[in-house]
Amino acid sequence: MRKLLTATMFWAVAASGQAHPQPQADASAPSATDAPPQFYPDKAQRFEVNGKVVLDCAITSERKLEECTVVSETPVDYGFGDAALRMSKILRMDPNGPLVIKGRATIPISFKVPR
């Protein structure tokens, strides 16, 4: 049986050198990391639809997420799964969190219509 890791996530620093917000996510709880507006799917924004995605990801020794797959996406057909996968490329495990050699984590992500 696969071990569920409690993950505290933070955003990587953008190429511009400016840090993104640092939301936290507890992978064992229903609360989710809020997706930043630049990852919001166009169709969902046009129709003002909120969404939720759960990713399953491998964690590297550098605390990066790899091999992410979409476990669930609600609602479907608005692009939330693809957006969450793009977002996973900049998410990192909290450097102050527990040391992770290798493992997997379930990462819930919440999409709220940007205002």
Summarize the model shown.
With 115 residues, the chain is mostly beta strands.
Kindly describe this structure.
This protein is mainly β. It contains two helices and six strands, in the order ββαββαββ. The chain is elongated and about 40 Å long. The model is unreliable at 1-31 (pLDDT under 50).
What secondary-structure arrangement, pairings included, does this model have?
Layout: E1 9-11, E2 33-34, H1 42-46, E3 51-59, E4 65-74, H2 80-88, E5 91-93, E6 103-111
Parallel strand pairs: 2-6
Antiparallel strand pairs: 1-5, 3-4, 3-6
Q: What are the secondary-structure elements, in order, as H or E?
A: EEHEEHEE
Task: Report the radius of gyration as a whole number of Å.
Answer: 14 Å
Q: Strand-residue fraction?
A: 25-35%
User: Between the first and last Cα atoms, what is the distance in angstroms?
Assistant: 42 Å
Helix- and strand-based class?
Answer: mainly beta
- Tell me the number of helical segments per DSSP (H or I, 4 or more residues long): 2
The strand line-up of the biggest sheet is 2-6-3-4
Task: Report the biggest beta sheet as strand number plus sense, adding barrel if it closes.
Answer: 4 strands, mixed
Beta-strand segment tally: 6
Mean pLDDT over the residues = 76
Q: Which outline best applies? A: elongated
| Residue runs with pLDDT of under 50 for 5 or more positions | 1-31
State the share of residues found in helices, binned by percent. Answer: 10-25%
